[in-house]
Structure formats: structure tokens, C-alpha cells
Amino acid sequence: MAKTLISASGSGPDSNCGYSGTVPSGQEWYTVLVDNVWGAQGEHLVGTSGQTVTVTRCHSAGNYIGVANGQNFHFMRIYSVSAESYDCINGVCTLSTQYKTQGIYRSLADCQGVCANGGACAEGKKCVDPTTFCPDGKVCLDQGEFASIEALISKIGSEVC
Prior knowledge:
Layout: E1 2-8, E2 20-22, E3 27-33, E4 42-48, E5 52-56, E6 66-68, E7 71-73, E8 75-82, E9 86-89, E10 92-95, H1 96-99, H2 108-115, H3 143-158
Antiparallel strand pairs: 1-8, 2-5, 3-4, 3-8, 5-6, 6-7, 9-10
């Protein structure tokens, strides 16, 4: 599932204080704690599309601590979520569902930033290898290797154990 940050409350939870309603369709809301004083440090899911979120208590003893659905937080993050993910296949950004691939790029823009134009990617991005279109840190198979694996799977699948 692709997740893109669309909003983060600034200094403290004030911008969300008093909110009570449902999370809009296509969004996920998270609380974030920057230390372990009020709970486990990190990002915590507080609501997904259609769920009710209530933000209360905006300040506690001078600290910027809010409470959303019973979870303490220093600030909130709101993400747009999409089930779409992409892979760079032969220099073309392709939906991962088309060939049932991994979907290593969480948005079309992320994929195009490193895959488009035969490796001539966006400024500041590390391009995929334009000869193999294999992302950095990944292992890619050529057609011959893939065909060998498919043949072995077929052979093993037809054997009776």
C-alpha cells in the first residue's frame, strides 16, 4: 500500500485540538511521540478511512502533549493512502498488479524519478542501471534466468511426491 505524507501538525498538537470526526476516505492518521515519556516513541496509527478520531487535551503542564483516541502524542501525521505501487520494468513504470511484482515504488512519481527516460532520472535521484533497469540494492534476473526458474517450477510441480 502506497502512503504519501499530506499533512503534519507543527509545533504541538494545537492544529488538531478539538477535532472530532471521521478520517476522510483514502487517508490514515498517525500520532507521533518523539520520546518514551508518554508512551512508546515513534509513529502510531490512530485512524483509517471512516474511523472516528477525537483529539483532546492540547497542553499538559506546559508540554506539547495531545491525546487522540486515548493515545498521547507530540504531533500528528496525515497520509494519503493508495493500494497502487509500481516497479520499473524495462525502463517503464508499471503497476505492480499488472505482473504481480513486488511494487518497490510507492507512487508513480517515485518510480518515474529513477526509472523514466532510460535512466535519465530526476535531479538528486539515483537512477536505475539503464542497461538492466535494476534498482540499487536489488537483484534482477534476465529473461534466461527467469525462464530456467519457470521450467524448474513446472518440472517440480508435475512430479508426484
